[in-house]
């Protein structure tokens, strides 16, 4: 007796094994992150850089260990560079009389 008619043969996948399909998958998040990072070099870097970082980090599975896709790692690296350049540009623009140009 498997437990009041709830046999395991009828339902081979338990609820814990099925992945939720409510959000975008990791490959899509990696590609979105790369697009945001590349676009951030040209416009709105202070916004698109952190967005690329978050998308890349989520695409990597929120961990540094294991194998990761190339778009996810690229999104994290380019997003970090983009954010850093935007912060430097804002700091340079905020000081009186000195700028990056």
Question: Would you kindly provide a written description of the structure presented here, covering whatever features stand out?
Answer:
- The structure is a single chain.
- By secondary structure, this protein is mainly α.
- It starts with 25 loop residues before the first helix and ends in a 7-residue tail after the last helix.
- The protein is 54% helix and 0% strand.
- It is elongated and about 75 Å long.
- α2 (45-59) packs antiparallel against α3.
- It contains three helices and no strands.
- The model has no long low-confidence stretch (mean pLDDT 79).
Keywords:
101 residues, 0% strand, elongated, 3 helices
Mean pLDDT, all residues = 79
Measured distance between first and last alpha carbons = 78 Å
Proportion in β-strands: under 5%
| Total strands | 0
Count of runs of 4 or more consecutive helical residues:
3
Query: Largest sheet at a glance?
Result: none
Structural class determined from secondary elements: mainly alpha
Q: How much helicity do the residues have?
A: 40-55%
**Which stretches are poorly predicted, pLDDT < 50 over at least 5 residues?**
none
Q: Rough shape?
A: elongated
In angstroms, what is the radius of gyration?
Answer: 21 Å
Q: What series of H and E elements makes up the topology? A: HHH
